Amino acid sequence: MELIWIPISVLGALFQAVRTAGQKSLNVRLSIMVTTYVRSLFGIPLLLIYLSGVKLGTGEPFPEFHATFLIYALGTAIAQVAGTVFLIQLFTLRNFAVGTTLIKVDTIITAIIGSLFFSEVISGTGWLAVIVTLGGVILLTVARMGKRAIGVAENSSAWKPTMIGFASALSFTFSYLFLREASLSLEGSHVLMRSACSVVAVTGFQVFFLGIWLVWREPDGLKAMLPDWRLCCFIGITSALGSICWFTAMTIENASYVRSVGQVEAIFTLLISYFYFKERFYLAELIGIGVIVAGVLLFLL
Fold it and tell me: N or C: fewer beta carbons within 10 Å in the chain?
């Protein structure tokens, strides 16, 4: 059972790939901040149901929400919103190949910052697995972008998507590390109780504070959700399920390990393109998939 975090991480990556596709579609009609808010607002009901189920299933009382937990939970909420805003902003740019690729480096950034300043303890094999999975996803991404990636890299205007992509990666890095610290601070509770309380607290902060901001700055944006309520519900449900997986996995194992396994999201995205959009595979993409799988398998050693 000590490796249960691996399939949980893979499942989280699947939900995230589907949810991101939904957000990209929704952003065509809604603003960046409203699109960001959808995942929290429409996801919180399912998370509350999940927390109730965990309490009934484990029979444990709710842990004490002390200052350390609340600070890390709030930090997670802020960093997660920032990362999502930057990610959705990339959708509005025509030349986003470099930025999209840079987001993938969040695994190595998480490993470095986590081992230096947080509770991440990474073995030699762990570092190798992180690097291998990162190499695989970059290879797969560049293969998918093809000549567009080279063109963007040579374009002097690429600095904007590059900076946005790096800012998104850095924001998500801190969200992973903060959420693990928040969950671990609830000592003495069952893993599921710690992760469930953490995900509800983080999402609750997002619903409250981002909601206040939207009421103040974009009151019409909240009404604009109504015509797309089905897509909003879909995004909220997949986001909630993905968050449950991520928070549970990161409560069990290092955030950098979980994110490395989560790189299989790139494979799911490719499969969606192949089966739904009928796009063809290229040899370099297949090699990239093989490298990512090899990196994940290293965590079994």
Answer: N
CB 203 within 8 A of CB 44: yes
Query: Can you tell me which residue has the tokens 């709710």?
Result: 62
Torsional sign, CA 128, 179, 45, 33: negative
| Euclidean distance between CA atoms 199 and 44, whole angstroms | 9
Rounded distance, CA 101 to CA 107, Å? 12
- E strands, the chain, in order: none
Q: Which residue in the block uniquely carries the two structure tokens 């990209």?
A: 24
Domain range for 19: 5-298
Specify whether the CB–CB gap between 128 and 298 falls below 8 A.
Answer: yes
Place of tokens 């504070």: 209
pTM, entire model? 0.89
- Percent helix, strand, coil in the chain, to 5, is 80, 0, 20
- Reading the chain (301 residues) residue by residue, the pLDDT tens digits are 578 999 999 999 999 888 988 888 898 889 989 999 999 999 999 999 999 999 999 999 999 999 999 999 999 999 999 998 998 887 776 544 455 566 778 889 999 999 999 989 999 999 999 999 988 888 877 776 654 554 544 554 556 777 888 899 999 999 999 999 999 999 888 999 999 999 999 999 999 999 999 999 998 888 889 999 999 999 999 999 999 999 999 999 999 999 999 988 888 877 777 776 666 777 777 888 889 889 998 988 7
Spatial separation of the C-alpha atoms in residues 161 and 150, rounded to whole Å: 14
Q: Coil, helix or strand for 101?
A: helix
DSSP string, 93-125: -S--HHHHHHHTTHHHHHHHHHHHHSS----HH
Largest CA distance in the chain: 59
